[in-house]
């Protein structure tokens, strides 16, 4: 039976982008709007924080060491010690209406990341693919808020959520070329109480989505059918990822941003970092950026 535990009362404005570092055995995540990057060490319980100079949507580790982050100003190498940003590519130069958001690497070391409309209303954002050579490719237009990027264990399917459009899409994915095709609706969340925000895929190919606004994480089978739900003590989970020595701990970030008037008192752990154990599922190692 699944057990939910708060591991750090972060009080994040918008906790996002959790990613497990297998080498360090630590969990990293962002507070997009603070903005800052945080690291949790399960062995000691210690948490470290790095304050940033601009909004951050997500981050990935590099094969050669260091971090690549999706910042307000574009994709950049990020030096946490100095705070310096070395811009790789700015896919939406001059835009004040959008910023980069959810992202992760495929198993050839490409960084997939989408942008979002800052007002959460208009389909003015897009999905991008940052290649190891630094080239940036626009892969899909007409997005409101990019989320839920994940890849099937066999590398044949890519998932992508436009959360404000209430849809999770599946694409045929060519791992060698990085092309996507045959877009179709994988999950329609319009009839549901929550939307799929961030997500991950387990070793059996099931898609775990943070159901923001609905107090829960949902597990969907490869056909898009909801097969399990884990309830949380907060209404707005934002993303989940597997970690731990056996990749069987599901870490969940949350937000305080969408709390309505009077809700904060009843949800003192909103914005915290949680772990879920006992689901019986295991994750897959997160690939690193090859550039």
Summarize this structure as a short list of keywords or feature phrases:
291 residues; mainly beta; Neuraminidase; four-stranded antiparallel beta sheet; 24 strands; 0% helix
Outline the structure in words.
The protein is an all-beta fold and 291 residues long. The protein has a single domain, classed as TolB, C-terminal domain (Neuraminidase), CATH 2.120.10.30. The chain is built from no helices and 24 strands. It is globular, with a radius of gyration of 17 Å.
CATH class: Mainly Beta
Succession of helices and strands: EEEEEEEEEEEEEEEEEEEEEEEE
- Mind telling me the C-alpha Rg? 17 Å
Q: In CATH terms, what is the fold-level topology?
A: Neuraminidase
Number of helices: 0
Largest sheet properties: 4 strands, antiparallel
Provide a brief overview of the structure.
By secondary structure, this protein is mostly beta strands. It has no helices and 24 strands.
Produce the secondary structure layout.
Elements lengths: L2 E6 L6 E7 L4 E6 L4 E5 L6 E5 L4 E6 L5 E5 L2 E5 L6 E5 L8 E8 L5 E7 L7 E6 L5 E8 L2 E6 L5 E6 L4 E8 L4 E10 L6 E7 L5 E6 L3 E5 L5 E6 L5 E7 L5 E6 L18 E5 L14
Antiparallel strand pairs: 1-24, 2-3, 3-4, 4-5, 6-7, 7-8, 8-9, 10-11, 11-12, 12-13, 14-15, 15-16, 16-17, 18-19, 19-20, 20-21, 22-23, 23-24
